[in-house]
């Protein structure tokens, strides 16, 4: 009985060693130099220390590694759903793509929409720090003055973002390396302004309102800085 047990145990040990060897040969082993898992939210082409200081970004992927992938999209399909071929908007987007072949208009619109919501809410809160990277100098100064005046009066703005119903590129201009894209936003907000005593002096804390804005974003093409900054705002268009 003891001999039978020993033989059976030995057989299982040999089988276990064989299975382990096969797994090792198929899957390999870690050497410490493997490529880390892909993170779709990681910033490309920026050191980690800089990324920590750039939380507010409307990103435009523009690294050389992405150029080949972008080039395989047929020109007639590239702006499908964004602009009709041959229109001024499509031609303007083509100009941007010639400087930065990885430009993706849909990614841009997603980033612009995120920036739109962040800017609206940050302005309502008086959060200047969050506005700094997203606004051009001139626009920031205008926002800063409005926040300062509001604080002087003791007024508070309460804003709830309900939705962005539409974000659409309405104009594209490229002059040299400077690109500007006008985006029309249709959104729903709940917003109210209270005076120092807490009384509502503008808007309503209980009413959803439709808001239409035309915002212009600009960027220097070819720049290593991926930010598109807000350079102009226009309401009710």
Helix content: 25-40%
Over the alpha carbons, how many angstroms does the gyration radius reach? Answer: 27 Å
List SSEs in N-to-C order. Answer: HHHHHHHHEEEEE
Could you describe the largest sheet, including whether it forms a barrel?
A: 5 strands, antiparallel
Account of the protein in words:
There is one protein chain. This protein has 237 residues and is of the alpha+beta class. The chain has a single domain (56-235), classed as Roll (Nuclear Transport Factor 2, Chain: A). It has 8 helices and 5 strands. The chain has helices at residues 2-27, 48-51, 67-71, 75-78, 88-99, 105-125, 128-132, 137-153; strands at residues 156-175, 178-194, 200-203, 209-220, 229-235. Strands 1, 2, 3, 4 and 5 form a 5-stranded antiparallel β-sheet that branches. The longest helix has 26 residues, at 2-27. Residues 19-71 have low confidence and may be disordered.
SSE layout and pairings?
Layout: H1 2-27, H2 48-51, H3 67-71, H4 75-78, H5 88-99, H6 105-125, H7 128-132, H8 137-153, E1 156-175, E2 178-194, E3 200-203, E4 209-220, E5 229-235
For the structure shown, list the relevant keywords.
237 residues, five-stranded antiparallel beta sheet, 40% helix, Nuclear Transport Factor 2, Chain: A, 8 helices, alpha+beta
């Amino acid at each position: 009985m003891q001999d039978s047990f020993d033989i059976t145990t030995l057989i299982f040990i040999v089988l276990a060693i064989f299975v382990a060897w096969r797994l090792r040969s198929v899957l390999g082993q870690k050497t410490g130099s493997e490529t880390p898992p892909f993170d779709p939210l990681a910033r490309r082409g920026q050191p980690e220390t800089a990324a920590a200081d750039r939380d507010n970004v409307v990103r435009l992927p523009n690294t050389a590694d992405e150029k080949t992938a972008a080039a395989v999209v047929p020109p007639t399909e590239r702006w499908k759903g964004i602009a009709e071929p041959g229109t001024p908007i499509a031609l303007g987007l083509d100009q941007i793509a010639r400087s930065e072949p990885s430009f993706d208009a849909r990614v841009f619109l997603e980033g612009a929409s995120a920036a739109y919501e962040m800017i609206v809410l940050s302005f309502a809160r008086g959060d200047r720090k969050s506005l700094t990277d997203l606004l051009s100098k001139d626009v920031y100064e205008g926002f800063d003055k409005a926040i300062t005046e509001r604080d002087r009066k003791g007024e508070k703005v309460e804003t709830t973002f309900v939705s962005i119903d539409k974000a659409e590129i309405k104009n594209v201009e490229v002059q040299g390396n400077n690109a500007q894209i006008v985006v029309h936003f249709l959104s729903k907000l709940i917003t109210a302004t209270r005076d120092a005593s807490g009384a509502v002096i503008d808007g309503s804390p209980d009413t959803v309102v439709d808001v239409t804005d035309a915002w212009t974003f600009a960027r220097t093409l070819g720049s290593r800085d991926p930010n598109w900054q807000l350079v102009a705002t226009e309401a009710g268009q």
